[in-house]
């Protein structure tokens, strides 16, 4: 998320503007933040993981949505576009337009230098307020590293790390397993892993 707000708007004004905009923006407490474009590696990793996950969920109740689907965190008012969102129940949408999801089960963010601190910190703080969210997954784009946070019964989050290309990454709340080699297929990595 770019940290330079453009102007203050109500949520309704933001949605009207965003639905006509050519460039996507995130929204929080009256401020609109232009989103930067993604690198080739970022896009490839996101698409690899979304495709492999979607294929395994075919004909089941879960659907994989990529970064065109806006998510709203009702509790904090954040509107954002995660790299991947997975919904398994009947989608709850903010309004009849149907472009803002309220009930993701899983959110995945591919990290970049400009977003990593935000994705790990403040953005995760917002996401934790989604009562439907069971998993938050962070994927590095410069080395084989996937961090899976799973909500526990007491509300805490348990971290499991996957960091070699030979490992399989498994979601905890959906029946999907993908090798890191498949997630990073076609990506030039600084550290090749094993």
Q: How large, in whole angstroms, is the Cα Rg?
A: 16 Å
CATH structural architecture of the largest domain: Alpha-Beta Complex
The CATH homologous superfamily of the largest domain is called tt1808, chain A
Question: Unreliable segments (pLDDT under 50, ≥5 consecutive)?
Answer: 1-6
How many strand elements?
14
The CATH topology of the largest domain corresponds to tt1808, chain A
Provide the spatial order of strands within the biggest beta sheet. Answer: 4-7-9-10-11-12
Q: Alpha-carbon distance between the termini?
A: 32 Å
How much β-strand is present in the residues? Answer: 25-35%
The sequence of SSEs as H and E is EHEEHEEEEEEHHEEEEEH
Overall tally of domains: 2
Helix and strand content put the structural class at alpha+beta
Supply the number of helical segments: 5
Summarize it.
It contains 5 helices and 14 strands. The chain is α+β, with helices and mostly antiparallel strands and 194 residues long.
Would you give an account of this structure?
The chain has 194 residues and is an alpha+beta fold. The chain has two domains: 36 residues, no CATH class; 146 residues, tt1808, chain A (Alpha-Beta Complex). 22% of the residues lie in helices and 29% in strands. The chain is built from five helices and 14 strands. The strands form four sheets. It has a six-stranded mixed beta sheet with strand order 4-7-9-10-11-12. A hairpin with a 6-residue loop joins strand 10 and strand 11. The longest helix is centred in the N-terminal third of the chain and has 18 residues. It is globular, with a radius of gyration of 16 Å.
């Amino acid at each position: 998320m770019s940290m330079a707000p453009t102007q203050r708007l109500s949520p309704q004004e933001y949605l009207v503007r965003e639905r006509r905009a050519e460039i996507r923006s995130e929204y929080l407490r009256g401020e609109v933040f232009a989103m930067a474009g993604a690198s080739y590696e970022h896009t490839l990793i996101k698409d690899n993981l979304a495709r492999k996950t979607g294929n395994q969920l075919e004909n089941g109740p879960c659907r994989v949505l990529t970064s065109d689907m806006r998510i709203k965190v009702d509790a904090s008012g954040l509107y954002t576009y995660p790299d991947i969102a997975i919904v398994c129940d009947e989608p709850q949408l903010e309004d009849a337009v149907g472009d803002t999801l309220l009930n993701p089960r899983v959110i995945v963010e591919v990290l970049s230098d400009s977003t990593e601190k935000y994705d790990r910190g403040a953005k995760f703080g917002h996401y934790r307020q989604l009562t439907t969210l069971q998993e938050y997954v962070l994927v590095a784009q410069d080395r084989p590293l996937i961090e899976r946070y799973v909500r526990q019964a007491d509300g805490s989050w348990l971290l499991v790390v996957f960091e070699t290309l030979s490992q399989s990454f498994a979601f905890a709340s959906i029946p999907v397993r993908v090798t890191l080699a498949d997630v990073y297929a076609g990506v030039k990595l600084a550290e090749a892993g094993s």
